[in-house]
Amino acid sequence: MKTDHKPAILITIAIFAAALLLTGCVQSHSGQVYSQGQAQRSMQVYYGTIIELREVTIEGSSSGAGAVIGGIAGGVIGSTIGSGSGRTLATVGGALAGAVGGAAVEKGAGTKKAVEFTIELDDGRVMAVVQEDKAYYRIGDRVRMLQGGDGSWRVRQ
């Protein structure tokens, strides 16, 4: 007897498409990107000099969506393998493996390389700010520090 795997394949493709959409919603921590809530809001501006730079990592977060999507995809794929109790075992194993893999993919997609800036402000205070940034900074550079009403800080040249 020939089994039609087309529905399982279509479901799997839909699940992976949803996973790609979820990873596209990862928040940016760059000094160049503003959220909608930060736009058209006043910010305090401070000037200072970079006294130390250090590469750091902003760890991704897990909402659980990656594990759910991965578990469903793994279960669907597993259900196409074998028959009887072997199929049940493959379905459960696929769901578990998919959930673990999906959670790892979601967390990895949100993990970013970043820079920890230590800046001496012109008023003598020393501040440290971590942000994802593509710009090139050096110790001794003059920078602007912007403080948002929500308490967030960003470094700009």
Low-confidence stretches: none
- Main beta-sheet annotation: 5 strands, antiparallel
User: What is the strand arrangement across the widest sheet?
Assistant: 3-2-1-4-5
Overall radius of gyration: 23 Å
Structure description:
This protein has 3 helices and 5 strands. With 157 residues, the protein is an alpha+beta fold. The protein has 2 domains: 78 residues, no CATH class; 76 residues, OB fold (Dihydrolipoamide Acetyltransferase, E2P), CATH 2.40.50. α1 runs antiparallel to α2 and α2 packs antiparallel against α3. The longest helix has 27 residues.
Give the secondary structure arrangement, pairings included.
Elements: H1 6-23, E1 44-58, H2 65-78, H3 84-110, E2 112-121, E3 126-131, E4 142-147, E5 153-156
Helix pairs in contact: 1-2, 2-3
In short:
With 157 residues, this protein is an alpha+beta fold.
Jot down its keywords.
157 residues, alpha+beta, 2 domains, 5 strands
